[in-house]
Amino acid sequence: MDIHRTNVWRPLSRLRAELDRQFGDWFDNVPLVSSAGQYPAVNVWEADDQLFAEAELPGVAPDDLDVSVVNNELTIKGVRQERLAEGATVHRNERGAGAFTRVIPLPYEVDPNGVQATLRDGVLLVSLPKHEAAKPRKIRVAATGATG
Amino acid sequence: MTAQMTVEPAAAESTRTGRVYRPLVDILERADELLIVADLPGASADSIEVRFENGELWIHARVAPRPGREVAYVRQEYGVGDFQRVFQVSETVDGNRITASYDHGVLTLHLPKVEAAKPRKIDVRSGR
Lengths: 148, 128
Description:
The complex is a heterodimer. Chain A is 11% helix and 39% strand. Chain A is mostly beta strands. A five-stranded mixed beta sheet of chain A has the order 1-2-8-7-10, with no helix packed on it. In chain A, strand 3 (65-70) and strand 4 form a beta hairpin. In chain B, 0% of the residues lie in helices and 42% in strands. In chain B, strands 1-9-10-4-3 form a five-stranded antiparallel beta sheet, with no helix packed on it. In chain B, strand 3 (25-29) and strand 4 form a beta hairpin. The A-B interface holds A 36, 38, 41-47, 51-52, 54, 56-61, 82, 84-85, 87-95, 104, 106-107, 121-123, 125, 145-148 and B 1-4, 24-30, 35, 37, 39-46, 66-67, 69, 71-78, 102-106, 108.
């Protein structure tokens, strides 16, 4: 004779495991994608004989951000970590988290020695002077602190 | 480096023109608080207003235009403007104890629950 035990908590713990799995996947290096299909969105403009490239990267720490230039290509690469969701119930998740890489073609070659990048209040601004480029350079991102 | 903010009492409405954007948010719930996390890149602690009135949580951030001058765009994938968003928040939140901080372009709001709304462990005594 089978003795059938009813565990009233099993459906609940199954649901919780399923939610953990879903949101665990979301927060584990799923590539970020904006509605435009690429993350981050980037603006590029010309002024004072320089190119400027800007991207909104809220919640990304300078140490998690990699900016590099080779010839006429700018690469913005990094990861947004999100730890707040751990141990919490997620009611809404619009922001997303994870790794991203964006390669931006520039209209001409720039001088990698003169390239500067700052990250302030979630906005990355890269200035690229017009010159011949020789080889890939890593650009150190100088983080200016948030105001207040 | 974080900037600590308190919730300000009702202030005058802004009559500035210009684009207003709806920030992306995450809403999380813990045993003792709700968390609202909003992406507000390009704002600053002093340019952000948070108001809680009649169960409505109102977030507004002034954003200085970037760049602040006429330039020739090579690529333009997003616009820059103020942020605004309003939420209905249930009465389980204690409006007097809401705190806010702004760091790396992200606004984090802590909305503590009123005592009565916190989950309470109930000891089961064996009747014998």
